[in-house]
Amino acid sequence: MNIISEDEIEKIALGYLQSLGWQYIHGTTISPDGEQKGREYNEVILGSRLRNAIDTLNPTIPHEAKEEAFKKIYRVGVENFLPLQNNETFHKYLTEGVDVEVRRGDGIRGDKVYIVDFENPERNTFLCVNQFTIIENNQNKRPDIILFINGLPLVVIELKNPTDENATVKSAFNQLQTYKQAIPSLFTYNSLLIASDAWEAKAGTITSDWSRFQSWKTKDGKTTADTLQPQMEVMFNGLLNKKTFLDAIKHFIVFEKSKEKTLKKVAAYHQYYAVNKAVTTTQTAAAESGDRRAGVVWHTQGSGKSLSMVFYSGKMVLTLDNPTIVVLTDRNDLDQQLFDTFSYCSQLLRQKPKQAEDRKHLRKLLSVASGGIVFTTIQKFMPIDDDMIESNTA
Question: What span, in angstroms and rounded, lies between the C-alpha atoms of 200 and 213?
């Protein structure tokens, strides 16, 4: 019987990542005593890499503004002890850029400093690091693998040995929860958490409980992977390839803010591929030569159709340059349910949705040249009384 060790599982995972173009460095190499140094044990950002990225991606921004952006990113995790709030602040910096003030010849104006190029993956640096020691609050922790983009620790991966009956994927999940308590600064910058035992693999966010950690069942979005393939290999190839990973971070993560709590959610694999296909067909249908028929997405119960609609709308707002999106239902309760979900996710949508109160209000909401997300029931498209009077007197 072949026995596989945790070190070997780590090597397998790192091999998958390197085959996808992630550069590999052992954690000791960039420790205070390592060959490259450059960080203290209490620092979770690779500062020199982040500075290089800021310089590369923002060539026209003055040095002072770049330094302002750098300091803002560093300060996110130290200004308060609200990990989820810090994470949300950083996610906005990550996906929308950091607001800075730029002094020009004609005065001072606002501008953006971008820290990741989402459209051109190769302009970023992708780094996988194992045994990255972090010391915080007198606790010394070494997550198995951390994935950095431009020096920012966006993914934490915890691995367990499948031959140890006590070391399951669930125990890897539990270890991630321990890290969240012991080294919270790392999770200020976290986009995804992954737990695996080399065969099974599940991903979630910093607010996901165990039931919300999900597998990724396809490498390409076209065919479901064979059940004889290790889920870790499928997830790494399907989700952690550069293009998909950047797309998922920018367009498929939401902070759902209800009255009771905030939950950070990431799309499941079926939502990710369905939405991207819907966006592509919508672009084709809306083109000058398009037939205006984008298609239909079929959902099963419990598949997360409300969030799929949010992800679709959020991406369409950027893809079609601020279109008007109308969400049409045939029941008041469904209209309210969807409106609430969209309202909770307004950061991804970059605007607050509006709900038509009656037929006149609907007309007012739709009387714009473009822009806006409008909720209404189909009954509100009936003619209003003034229309009936005009029709009868014509």
Answer: 11
Closest CA to 251 of 279, 223, 218, 282: 279
Quote the distance between the C-alpha of residue 334 and its chain's center: 26
Q: What is the pLDDT of residues 82-124, one digit of tens each?
A: 889 999 999 999 999 999 999 877 788 899 999 999 999 999 9
The full set of domains in the chain, from first to last, is 6-56+118-257 (3.90.1570.50), 324-394 (no CATH)
Helices in 183-323 by DSSP H: which ranges?
A: 231-239, 242-251, 269-286, 305-319
The CA distances from residue 148 to 130, 187, 248, 252, in Å, are: 11, 13, 15, 19
pTM for the predicted model, two decimal places = 0.93
- Using DSSP's 3-state secondary structure scheme, residue 192 falls into strand
Nearest to 131 by CA among 212, 237, 11: 11
Distance CA 273, CA 267 (A): 9
For the chain, the distance separating the N- and C-terminal CA atoms, rounded to the nearest angstrom, is 89
